[in-house]
Amino acid sequence: MPATLLVLPRHISFSIPSLSSTSMKLGPSLRAPRAVPAFCRIFPFKLKYQGMLGRVFHVRMLSSQPYRERNWSRPDGSRSSSRDAAAVRDGGRGPRRSLIDDEAQLSDWVGDRRTGSFKGKRASEDDGSDRERAPGRGRTKFGEAKRRRETDTGDFGESERQRTRRAPTRTFGRESSRPPRQLDSEGDDGFPPLRKSWGDNPTRGNMNPRAGQRAGRRDFGQRTSKPRDGEGAVSRFQSEEERMDLTDLISEDESEVDDSDEDELVKSSNGSLPGIEKKVAQVSSGQSDSYLSETRFDQCAVSPLSLKGIRDAGYEKMTVVQEATLPVILKGKDVLAKARTGTGKTVAFLLPSIEVVLKSPAPERDQKRPPIFVLVICPTRELASQAAAEANTLLKYHPSIGVQVVIGGTRLALEQKRMQTNPCQILVATPGRLKDHIENTAGFATRLMGVKVLVLDEADQLLDMGFQKDIERIIAAIPKQRQTLLFSATVPEKVRRISHIALKRDHEFINTVEEGSEETHTQVRQMQLVAPLNKQFSILYSILKDHIADDVNYKVLVFCTTAMVTAFVADLLGELNLNVREIHSRKSQSYRTKVSEEFRKSKGLILVTSDVSARGVDYPDVTLVIQIGLPADREQYIHRLGRTGRKGKEGQGILMLAPWEEFFLSTVRDLPITEAPVPSVDPETKKKVEKSLSHVEMKSKESAYQAWLGYYNSNKKIGSDKSKLVELANDFSRCMGLDTPPAIPKLVIGKMGLRNVPGLRSR
Ligand SMILES: Nc1ncnc2c1ncn2[C@@H]1O[C@H](COP(=O)(O)OP(=O)(O)OP(=O)(O)O)[C@@H](O)[C@H]1O
After folding, report:
1. Whole-number Cα distances in Å, 433 to 149, 180, 243, 480
2. Distance between CA atoms of 126 and 152, rounded to whole angstroms?
3. For position 410, what pLDDT does the model report?
4. Which end of the chain is more exposed for a tag (fewer CB within 10 A), N or C?
5. Which atom from ligand 1 is nearest to the alpha carbon of 321?
6. Residue 58, CB half-sphere, CA atoms under 13 Å: how many?
7. pLDDT in tens, 470-528
8. Is it the case that residue 752 has pLDDT exceeding 80?
9. In this predicted structure, what is the pLDDT of residue 12?
10. 0.80 cut: is pTM over it?
11. Which residues contact 78 (CB under 8 A, 6 or more apart)?
12. The pLDDT value given to residue 95
């Protein structure tokens, strides 16, 4: 479909604020002649394609063996027909068309409360067959966990705090020895006074020792030691469903478990890291990191038909991570690869995986349970669909190789049928749905016994707390004799230590992020802004307005802490007449797919999102990423930011925190995050935002309040002082325009461990 058809028309009444009417004013220290909007001065450089500049470190280990294309003939000697070919390709893309709406993940009480209505210019949700349930449901052995199995961030029977409890709370070596940085503005308990007067101290102390330095002035010799992993942060493994599904929240007594034992366990496991480390530096040119190598794909020992597909996709040179990993993977080695966001990791694992399929025996014509040769696991549905689409691009000239995708939120039976009737040598899956098939799909376990390559995309997330158990179960269902490929933009040491769950001990760790350089892109300008909650919505609106005025092709992602907070912020921005969409786990899969596709192809659009878009999703030309509230952890901050600045392009990122969330900055202090001046908001803007807040439905606010409380309750630092937590939540409720905080079901309060906490209203 031509892209133009998918670009939503801009709203007729939508007007881009003129330069002179910009409502976001800088503090006095930064007041300057207003020739350009304030935002332009904060982010002075224009977004433009950086090209493929920069130097790279070359690895030439490519085989000189001529490639022999496998003849994919049927047992009767005939080639697959073009109809088969179409079926194969459709098979991979099929899910996008055949996805059904499924709101089954809604916990009951949330279901009652959500309105699901669109505000402002947001498209109305497709409600068609929303309530249709997967037939496979209810047959699972995992009972209660089943309901949550389809979540994106994976929760299969463990509560957040149980997982947090098991989590190592310290990191290793020198990184762990440094105490957390004390911030001037924090009290002893990490909570600064709640109500800071607006406009005071616009020039907060800079969190980054190198703040203000721009690309080209970085000192790679001085490596800032990393902060403690996940220090005080909310676990990213708490699924959105879980955050809202308070039956999953654990009881007070469990919350008292000390995790010092875990520390000891981690300490005692300190030793040399498994695998052979290979540093393949992606050298920073000082301006923009070059993500392309000098090696062309046609210099590689891959199938000429794959090369044809690659050429059609417009790829000529390999990216650095592709160049570094391909020869090693082709040799059959297990690989753990780390490369910055948006640098082509998907092709890096798919291309050699396709080679494995090509070298495998073609399935018999009447084979009832033909083997699956390649299993790719992704943490989110969007990512799985995207990886399958990329595979189909590479397989354009391999019509007999089929890619199927199995993800939550779609009918299990449909997937079962598709896998039965279409070729499926490559399977891309989310962990929960994969487990469903292992348990409920006849013959599936047998087919999995053919797996020769296992890929974990976003490996650190899949191997860490939230998914680990499921991945272990899945690994137990595939042959030990296989090749395993782990890819991610972030590989914390604690994940390397547990990588033996999936990898052979002699695997290669290929790291394309140069020692001493940041895990983020230098061409992405990162800023942090600390402002009290009651100013944040106005500031957000001002930032967006100025960005829109500055760049007519704006494409903005606004990350929020939970699904319900995402829905609320989207409602608000819709009321403010911004062109906005929302995506989060509370939306049906068909809706998510639709919005995701729309955002991919659009310009002039804001997507308010939860962490379902944090990792891997490849939206081209995102101009700005805003993160409001505490990111789950350092890694999640990096992945969210990585939605901009892809393929060497420029981008901007703003992290907006409340003063009591400022402690998070210590976990990212080695990143070049500069301080944004706290803008003053003119009275007109303030009034407009207040009016729009009053138009947002009560149910949206109530759900956001409860979700907010759940999210911060699970944060070690903020959730440990329950009275303070409730105080903050009630402040958030006031900021949404509520005079009285919404009442919460007694059961839920109990589950959250908030019984008898003053300030909470129960019902
Ligand atoms: N060799 C290449 N030349 C040009 N573009 C490429 C090449 N390989 C991949 N791409 C494109 O680069 C973009 C980013 O790729 P991809 O999504 O695989 O990045 P990633 O490293 O997995 O990012 P993330 O860490 O966010 O998951 C995609 O649009 C992809 O099609």
Report:
1. 7, 39, 20, 22
2. 20
3. 85
4. N
5. 21
6. 9
7. 999 999 999 999 999 999 999 988 888 889 999 999 999 999 987 666 788 888 899 99
8. yes
9. 31
10. no
11. none
12. 29
Q: Work out which ligand 1 atom sits closest to the CA atom of 318.
A: 1
How far, in Å, CA of 621 to CA of 47, rounded? 9
Listing DSSP states for 183-239 in one string gives PTT--TTS---S-PPTTS-SSPPPS-TTTT--TT---TTSPPPPPPTTTTPPPTTS-
Of the candidates 314, 349, 307, which has an alpha carbon nearest to the alpha carbon of residue 328?
349
The percent of residues above 70 in pLDDT, for the chain, comes to: 62
| Per-residue confidence (pLDDT) for residue 366, from 0 to 100 | 76
Ligand 1: residue whose CA is nearest its atom 22:
345
Ligand 1 site-directed mutation target among 52, 306, 310, 315, most atoms within 8 Å of CB:
315
Contact of 551 with 623, CB cutoff 8 Å: yes
Locate tokens 């992290």: which residue? 655
Write the ipTM: 0.99
Q: Is residue 202 lining ligand 1, measured as CB closer than 6 Å? A: no
Q: How far is the CA of 318 from the centre of ligand 1 (A)?
A: 10
35 DSSP assignment: T
What SS3 state is found at 333? coil
The residue whose CA has the least distance to atom 3 of ligand 1 is: 315
Separation CA 455–CA 383 (nearest Å)? 13
Question: Hunting for tokens 């600390």 — which residue is that?
Answer: 530
Cβ–ligand 1 distance for 618 under 6 Å, the answer yes
- 347 CB under 6 A from ligand 1? yes
344 ligand 1 Cβ < 6 A:
yes
Dihedral over Cα of 670, 672, 677, 679: its sign: negative
Among 409, 415, 393, 460, smallest CA distance to 618 is for 393
Please give the average per-residue pLDDT across 438-449, as a whole number. Answer: 95
Q: DSSP string covering 306-354, please? A: HHHHHHHHT--EEEHHHHHHHHHHHTT--EEEE--TTS-HHHHHHHHHH
d(CA 305, CA 297): 12
CA proximity to 403, closest of 364, 378, 375 = 375
- Tens of pLDDT, residue by residue over 343-356, are 999 999 999 999 99
Q: Coil, strand or helix: which one is 605?
A: strand
Contacts of 312 (CB under 8 A, 6+ apart): 393, 396
Q: Report the pLDDT averaged over residues 51-73.
A: 34
